[in-house]
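Example (one chain per record):
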Amino acid sequence: MFNLMRRAAADYDQVLICFSAKPGYPRARAARYLRRSGDRQAHRQPFTAQHRPPRRRRGVRLRGLSRSFAQTVRKWRPAMAQLEFTQMAQYASDCAPAPTILVEHDITLDLYQQLLSLDDDWELRRQLDRWRRFETQAWSAMSCVVTMSDKDRRVVSGANAVALANGVDLERFPARPRRA
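Predicted structure:
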């Protein structure tokens, strides 16, 4: 995500809303790529609450984060809102009227299906049903869903979906010769 922001900054203004366990992070690293207009102080207060997926707190929305999205959209009127990870889909309506893109790093219901193939457990089946409802509803509410593979793109039903293959920052993670 950092490298996508870094590269997009050459052509687009960006506003970042994120969770942070540490005050000031990721501002130190990402701030230079936000709002090329020079207004980098727009939202100085980091949102530090921890987000819990529906498995633990089904249906609970973090009001502070919801307000942050709504305020940011009102202030900056973005051409689009990009939500990273399945759990963030619940905030799509707070981004209106901006079109929303959901980046699915992993298809959660697929993960639960894989876990069930190893161990047929009542709780896993229950969670799979919850995630199937949540994820499929989320996909249909998005302008576009981005997946990391064609396999995942085929799983996304009822939505405009594209696959963008993962990459590795070879400057940050250079290849090293293998040791015997």
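Caption: The chain has seven helices and four strands.
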